[in-house]
Design a protein that fits this description.
Blueprint lengths: L1 E2 L3 E6 L5 E10 L6 H5 L6 E11 L8 E13 L10 E14 L9 E15 L4 E12 L10 H5 L2 E9 L4 E9 L2 E11 L11 E10 L9 E12 L1
Antiparallel strand pairs: 1-3, 2-3, 2-13, 3-4, 4-5, 5-6, 6-7, 7-8, 8-9, 9-10, 10-11, 11-12, 12-13
Length: about 240
């Protein structure tokens, strides 16, 4: 088991927009065992799980407004050698992801995706300054056409992720999602706190700006706009 997507806790400028996320992945086959050694392609099959919750800290009972549960099965290629010195990484990930909010009746939302995501990584090793370009393309499979029939109009079919920064300093991770109803933007700025606490605190200060449709699966037709600040343990 290892980390997968970013893991964080962020309080909104409006406390009702507080958000946190946990995520991990599990490799099915031990790469050191004989079976994987004889069949190296199977080393790269994973189970992934990400859970994103929206928490209303402004209400008396501190209710969770919505939670998305996202299990997936995916294949992640090893680093593909391009032969170009200044390209340090080329990876391709493809998989099947389910997303639902675990609610019942009219609050129920669910869908499934088949996706493809290539990632191109540029890195200057002397300074640790790098850039990652990762477009993602997906199609919906067995979408819940009773409670969220037009989800694709708000979440679209493709997105672009750009990550730029320095490995031991500031990193800016931006995601742009394009859909019929409008463009959505997420920007996360993180900084390692161990640099401020002499290596004694292994986490990151994080600030997030969001202007997005469908950030919450429950309220996917609404646009969320605001700033959140908090900490991350994986960025």
């Amino acid at each position: 088991i290892s980390f997968y997507q970013p893991m964080y806790f962020l309080v909104g400028g409006d406390p009702e927009d507080t958000k946190f996320q946990i995520s991990f992945k599990y490799r099915f086959f031990n790469p050191e065992e004989p079976f994987a050694q004889r069949n190296p392609w199977i080393k790269n099959f994973f189970f992934g799980y990400t859970q994103t919750s929206f928490w209303d800290l402004d209400a008396d009972s501190r209710p969770f407004e919505d939670t998305s549960y996202k299990p997936e099965l995916f294949f992640q290629s090893p680093n593909i050698n391009t032969g170009i010195p200044w390209i340090k990484g080329l990876f391709v990930q493809t998989g099947f992801e389910h997303e639902s909010n675990g609610a019942g009746e009219d609050r129920s939302r669910s869908t499934n995706y088949i996706y493809l995501e290539p990632s191109l990584i540029f890195l200057k090793e002397t300074s640790l300054i790098g850039l990652r370009i990762a477009p993602r393309f997906w199609v919906y499979v067995n979408n819940n056409n009773r409670t969220n029939p037009d989800l694709d109009e708000y979440r679209g079919h493709y997105a672009l992720r750009l990550t730029f920064g320095k490995g031991n300093s500031f990193v800016c991770d931006s995601q742009f999602r394009f859909a019929e109803k409008g463009t959505s933007v997420h920007v996360d700025l993180t900084y390692p706190l161990h640099r401020l606490f002499r290596g004694n605190f292994d986490a990151y200060l994080q600030m997030q700006y969001v202007n997005a449709l469908g950030e919450s699966l429950l309220n996917y037709t609404e646009r969320t706009e605001g700033v959140r600040i908090g900490f991350a343990i994986v960025r």
